[in-house]
Amino acid sequence: MKAFYTNNNGLIEIPKWTSNCWIHIESPTETEKNYLLEELQIPEAFYNDIEDIDERPRIEVEDGWTLIIMRIPIKSGDVKIPFHTVPLGLIFKDDICVTISFYKTEIIADFVSYSQRKNIEIEDNFNLVLRLLLSSSVWYLKYLKQINQKIKLAEDNLEKSIKNEELQALLQIEKCFVFFITSLKANDVLFQRIKNLKAHKANYDPELLEDVEIELNQAQDTANIYNNILTGMMDAYASVISNNMNNIMKQMTSISIILMIPTLIASLYGMNVPNGLEESRYGIWILLLVSIILSSFGVFLFKRRRWF
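^ that's the sequence the OP posted. Answer follows.
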């Protein structure tokens, strides 16, 4: 998908390219790739870097072209990892400014809509980068709230019965936190580099810089808090599972000991040696009575020690 946007009391989509407009390409086709590489002449190495899903946020300059890569959150649609982060690349030179994402995301459409509601004017390319960083941080917070709801749901299910499915759901959420925390840290490093660029430092809007820094820090703190809560909860359930297993093994051992008492008595009585009861008509009843008494005593003893 290819779209062109220009400033007009916010970002307005236009049908074709004009000087200093913003070009956004999402999940580029082969035709759109040729448009970027052949018509706009962007460096192919930049295009390939953005295509790499594991690419880290950074800023790079080559032959007058500037590449800035940040990581943005997405809903992956994968049951195992419901939320993920992917690279969003911004490439610009002179009057050409392009953003490329190889994955469908909600951020750009929301960013355009927000700029129209607030009549935001994009002053230059670095202003666009900062506003995209701000928007991505807001979406990190939105997805973190959704992840927190999944944690609460898994916790409710675990309170009813501890099953592998609920524990696996928590492990999948933990993976999401790893991606989010790592990407947010990298975005923060990128922001600090952009903020301290000497050639552009004087042109930045101080309020925008403050907003970006606040939202980035809040997203990082929220992700860390939720991750710590999840880690503590998983440790607690691991202890509960271990304790339950110990209780079951203790009960099974106690039952085995109780059953062993009449078995031992019957074995001694059944041995082919004189025992004084082989001629008695009440021998079997005496053995049953002794077995019951000793077994009852064993049950009483284990109950008193709370082994049952």
